[in-house]
Write a structure and sequence with these properties.
alpha/beta, D-Maltodextrin-Binding Protein, domain 2, 2 domains, six-stranded mixed beta sheet, 36% helix, 17% strand
């Protein structure tokens, strides 16, 4: 039995590990439940925890700079059709994605995974390039993930820093921003926006489910945000921990999936609602495992490189624990 520290976000798939219904075999875990924005910042800057979720884009960027502190485990606790969350200020005249061209757009952090997905989708499916937009980033160097991974604005990208006395919400309300690529207002140490957007902004995709179904039908991609990471130095001493973590998270996921409402929620989002719950289980739109999710991660790796966040495209095998590559 070894003692380790684990950081978890309060997401549905991890809840059985948080509440103790599932334990990692061979491990006595000191658990901390923390918002993902703060978790990634603490890990990238300070390495606070032995195991945690991690921004997949930040992990790819760190690997491109030769940083090897973390090995990934193919557990994906957070997926979403992130582009359906793009919001435009009322009165800005933005009714379609094309209307974002030439506008001022907020983003919590330029390199975060959801932002990478959104820019990739805007370019590939709606003809809107990152260089078509003027960007305003909320997180400053003291709280950004990019400060730990050497982030610099890619060539051709106009990126401004939002002053500390403002945030995306207040700038939308004042008319200084036209839209935001995503919006994080849950209290945490990293994101400072708190203004409710319901009275000042509307989704660029009003029918989010219809757009999610369209995107999934065309691509078979359910975008991944977070993966799981373990400290490589710990893995070197105890290589068995990689598969033990994987099996524990799979068990936790399966406990949650036993609730029909959860699996049907995912099935509805992807337009894959089956005739009965059993068929939905047999056709999981959000699987764990390296092979099952590879096509999704390959698209993200392409986007990270195409958007100028890495000088070379990172091969996925570089970032995952070797024992997990056949899962």
């Amino acid at each position: 039995m070894i003692e380790i520290s684990i950081a978890l976000s309060n997401n549905t798939r991890s809840r059985p590990i948080i509440d103790g219904r599932v334990e990692v075999e061979g491990v006595k875990a000191a658990k901390t439940v923390v918002h993902p924005s703060e978790m990634f910042w603490r890990q990238l800057h300070y390495g606070d925890f032995d195991v945690s979720e991690m921004s997949l884009s930040s992990l790819l960027i760190a690997a491109s700079r030769g940083e090897t502190d973390w090995a990934a485990i193919p557990v994906f606790t957070m997926r979403s059709f992130f582009h359906t969350g793009i919001m435009a200020r009322r009165g800005a005249g933005i009714r379609t994605p094309k209307d974002l061209i030439g506008r001022k757009m907020g983003v919590p952090e330029y390199q975060q995974t959801a932002a990478v997905w959104n820019r990739g989708v805007l370019e590939d499916f709606f003809g809107v390039k990152a260089s078509d937009i003027e960007w305003f980033m909320e997180r400053g160097p003291d709280r950004s993930h990019g400060a730990a991974t050497g982030f610099a604005p890619p060539p051709g990208v106009r990126l401004n820093q939002i002053p500390p006395d403002k945030d995306i919400g207040t700038m939308l309300a004042s008319g200084e921003l036209d839209a935001t690529l995503l919006y994080l207002s849950e209290p945490n140490l990293v994101d400072r926006a708190r203004t409710p957007l319901k009275d000042i902004a509307d989704p660029v995709f009003p029918d989010k489910i219809a757009e999610s179904r369209r995107f999934y039908a065309e691509t078979k991609i359910f975008p991944i945000n977070h993966t799981l990471v373990v400290r490589r130095s710990l893995l070197g001493r105890h290589p068995w921990i990689a598969l033990n973590l994987y099996h524990a998270y799979c068990k936790a996921r399966d406990l949650v999936r036993a609730d029909a409402s959860f699996i049907l929620q995912e099935a509805v989002a992807t337009g894959r609602v089956a005739e009965d719950t059993a068929a939905s289980f047999a056709d999981d739109p959000a699987p764990y495992g390296f092979a099952a999710a590879r096509h999704v991660m390959e698209r993200l790796a392409d986007y990270v490189h195409r958007q100028g966040l890495t000088q070379q495209r990172i091969e996925l095998e570089r970032i995952f624990a070797p024992s997990t590559l056949d899962l």
